[in-house]
Design brief:
Number of helices of chain A: 11
Helix content of chain A: over 70%
Oligomer: heterodimer
Largest sheet of chain A: none
Largest interface: A-B, 45 and 56 residues
Helix content of chain B: over 70%
Radius of gyration of chain A: 22 Å
Structural class of chain B: mainly alpha
Order of helices and strands of chain B: HHHHHHHHHHHHH
Number of helices of chain B: 13
Largest sheet of chain B: none
Structural class of chain A: mainly alpha
Strand content of chain B: under 5%
Distance between the termini of chain A: 22 Å
Radius of gyration of chain B: 24 Å
Chain lengths: ~290, ~325
């Protein structure tokens, strides 16, 4: 159903790779934006311009100025501080949800490629089945049963990631299994498990890293949408999606409130997407030449 | 064709059956006693038991599942706990908004994406191509609900051309209905078409490098003639694949965008049902959305075979 990569380039870490990386525009811009996202989240643990939790109705809806760079919200909280702390929610949800998809999906994909036959058929049909439930549908089901919350959002996005990683891993691993060095390893008497761990997995790592970066961006978008709907991160923990939902009720009084969190989400997603594109080109220059 | 169709039909039925089991397990068995959830933790055991008996929740799970599936096939989805009206009526009423919205968004997506993708491929590595690619990269990064909010800011708050939300109903006239759905459809389409434009461009470029295209040009077919007569049909396979997958995202997006514009569609019904703990409505709506995704992908599979007979041949 989805396009899958057929080329499985190895990971390259030599000085030439890094020289190429630094001169690659997508990779450079993507790295800077992604680094800014991580730095913003880390910085928020030790410093924010003001407290993101302190409510002061006397300061509500202030326009941006030297003291409050992006103004204040309807509760008098500093928007810049809320944005910094909001980066944490995005990163936590992104890392854990992609981690779930990566670990479970890759395991299924590796088993499918190693076993082939009916095991592969069952795993792939299950992966097809997973596509029927976008992250929001899974989140709706979990919320209806357990109530809204960040953990349920993470689980929903994580489950949504599993079929993608399973399909990509299986397609890439099948290519590696057909290589001569795997045949040589089999001839030497290595079992399926050690070939998978020592030869297949390291050779598909680059594909998985690229995919994880792109799925991270998608997870940030999904978390924002779920928080906007009230199904994700809950108050008082700041989240960019919920900031947008609160701002929407004040569009006539303070339109800028609806702009800043959106820009933050878009920059974070843009950065990760560019980083993913850049990594793909760097790991497999043949693809870059084709485009 | 018949073996191909038969295999696809079996897969479709198995997927729908699997989805129904999953939805039933999560939304009927996992929560425990739905009557207790509905009445809250303070309700007396007698009252809970009486409601459970009234709603038929005291029957064995397998019997309930069987009744639900038979009900879905015959159009009887049961009664909503909170509205006390048939769920099928509620769903049909809301679908009259969600389906036109999804279709409008899909048509807009296809038009924008195909035009932009083909234009970029025709201007490969020139300014137009770079511009389309840069715009699409930004489009992919923008959350659709934020883009919807920006459209409201521009067209409703500043220009006052459209209302900021709500739906007048189809009985007030088609023009009013379409106008109310235009901004939501655009907000969904712009983001989706950014993805599809990139796929279209790569697919067209890939086919343009094929030998048969060179042959067509060598025998004197014009560039536009080659593009429309040879390249596009072959480039459509990956484009249609992604369109099928995008439909799921589009439906999910519809749920979110309905909330932005306060549209009384299926998405709003689900959220109201969640806050009212009306699990029977949530269960049927989730199943319906999942079924729509599966069925659209089934038709996409059939469409492949129609466009590229090799797909059919390899599958038999």
């Amino acid at each position: 159903m989805s396009a899958v990569p057929v080329a499985v380039p190895p990971l390259v870490h030599g000085p030439r790779f890094w020289r190429r990386a630094l001169s690659h525009r997508s990779f450079a811009v993507g790295s800077v934006l992604s680094l800014l996202l991580v730095l913003a989240a880390l910085l928020s643990f030790v410093w924010t311009p003001h407290s993101p939790y302190e409510i002061d109705m006397g300061l509500k809806l202030l326009a941006p100025d030297a003291k409050y760079w992006f103004g204040t919200d309807a509760y008098g909280r500093d928007v810049a501080s809320l944005l910094l702390v909001g980066a944490r929610s995005s990163i936590v949800v992104g890392v854990v949800a992609v981690g779930i998809g990566l670990i479970v999906g890759t395991a299924f994909g590796l088993v499918a490629a190693a076993k082939r036959g009916w095991v592969e058929e069952i795993i792939m049909r299950l992966a097809d089945f997973g596509f029927a439930f976008p992250a929001i549908l899974s989140a709706i089901m979990l919320t209806a049963v357990f109530g809204p919350g960040m953990v349920n959002a993470i689980i929903a996005i994580g489950i949504y990631n599993i079929p993608t990683f399973a399909r990509i891993t299986r397609a890439s691993a099948n290519v590696v299994w057909s290589r001569e060095f795997v045949l040589a390893a089999r001839a030497c008497g290595k079992n399926v498990f050690s070939i998978t761990m020592e030869h297949v997995l390291p050779n598909i790592m680059s594909v998985l890293i690229v995919q994880a970066t792109i799925r991270f961006a998608i997870a940030i978008l999904a978390e924002a949408a779920l928080s906007y709907l009230g199904l994700g991160t809950q108050p008082p923990q700041p989240s960019w999606g919920r900031m947008l939902s609160e701002a929407q009720t004040l569009m006539f009084q303070a339109p800028l409130l609806a702009v800043f969190p959106g820009v933050a989400i878009a920059l974070a997603v843009l950065g990760l997407n560019l980083l993913g594109d850049g990594l793909r080109d760097l790991f497999d220059p043949r693809l870059a030449r084709k485009r | 064709m018949s073996i191909f169709l038969f295999k696809r039909l079996i897969t479709l039925i198995a997927t729908l059956a699997g989805a129904s089991v999953l939805v039933f397990l999560v939304l009927e068995i996992l929560p425990g006693n739905a009557a207790q959830i509905l009445m809250g933790p303070d309700a007396s055991p007698e009252a809970v038991q009486a409601l459970a008996a009234k709603l038929g929740l005291d029957r064995p799970p397998l019997q309930r599942y069987q009744d639900w599936v038979v009900g879905m096939l015959t159009g009887d989805l049961g009664l909503s706990y909170t509205y006390s009206t048939p769920v099928s009526e509620l769903v049909l009423e809301r679908l009259s908004l969600t389906v036109p919205l999804a279709l409008m968004a899909m048509v807009l997506t296809s038009v924008i994406a195909l035009a932009a993708g083909i234009y970029a491929a025709a201007r490969h590595n020139k300014l137009g191509d770079v511009g389309v690619m840069a715009l699409s990269q930004i489009g992919i990064a923008i959350p659709n609900f934020w883009f919807a909010i920006l459209l409201i800011l521009l067209f409703s708050v500043h220009l006052k051309w459209f209302s900021a939300g709500g739906f007048p109903g189809w009985e007030e006239g088609i023009f009013g209905g379409v106008k109310a759905l235009l901004l939501p459809a655009v907000s969904l389409a712009v983001v989706q078409s950014a993805i599809l434009a990139r796929i279209t461009r790569s697919a067209v470029l890939e086919v343009m490098r094929e030998d048969f295209v060179r042959t067509a040009r060598a025998k004197g077919v014009s560039r536009p003639g080659t593009l429309w007569g040879h390249v596009l049909r072959n480039a459509m396979i990956p484009v249609i694949t992604i369109m099928g997958l995008q439909f799921a995202e589009l439906l999910a997006g519809t749920i979110v965008v309905e909330s932005v514009f306060y549209l009384p569609g299926l998405g709003r019904l689900i959220f109201q049902a969640i806050s009212n703990r009306d699990l029977i409505v949530v269960r049927n709506c989730v199943m319906l959305l999942a079924a729509m995704v599966v069925i659209v992908n089934f038709f996409v599979d059939l469409l492949y075979a129609a466009i590229d007979p090799r797909v059919k041949a390899s599958d038999i």
